Amino acid sequence: MRKSKPKKRILTPDPKFNDTLVTRFVNNMMWSGKKNTSFTIFYDALDKVEAKLQERGIDVWKKALNNIMPSVEVKARRVGGSTFQIPIEVPADRKVAVGMKWLILYARRRSEKSMSDKLAAEIIAASKNEGASVKKREDTHKMADANKAFSHFKLS
Asked: Do the domain assignments include residue 78?
């Protein structure tokens, strides 16, 4: 490693729920610096989730995020001319980042009309342990499980 690690930036909590995790999610969802638009989409999605499930939207979203976060993933490592997929445990900070990115990616791929509808549908599906983002986590875990034999080639 040649350069020093960058310092962690301190995020300001969001205005409605006073939660930095929401701000992180909105920052990931944002396009072209349109943060207000991202906040509007996120809050509309949570309102739609509340209307459908009669539960607090923020709680459903956090449950969905927990259902998506991977605990293991594979990383490629070259050993003697061959490349092996080595399963490694995911650090806590990366778990959250990967989970958020998957939730946003698969919400964008849905066929509903607006982004808030898409996000609400993906949050509801993920909170029930179904949907594309949960399938992605399961596929990642299966791949790690299939390559358990190479776990002795630990990354240095």
From this structure: yes
What is this structure's pTM? Answer: 0.90
d(CA 98, CA 118): 19
57-85 pLDDT per residue, tens: 999 999 999 999 999 998 888 888 888 88
Q: In the 3-class helix/strand/coil scheme, how is the chain assigned residue by residue?
A: CCCCCCCCCCCCCCCCCCCHHHHHHHHHHCCCCCHHHHHHHHHHHHHHHHHHHCCCHHHHHHHHHHHHCCCEEEEEEEECCEEEEEEEECCHHHHHHHHHHHHHHHHHCCCCCCHHHHHHHHHHHHHCCCCHHHHHHHHHHHHHHHCHHHCCCCCC
* Domain assignment present for 36: no
Domain containing 95 — which CATH number? 1.10.455.10
Look up the domain containing 84 and give its range: 56-156
Give the count of domains, the chain.
1
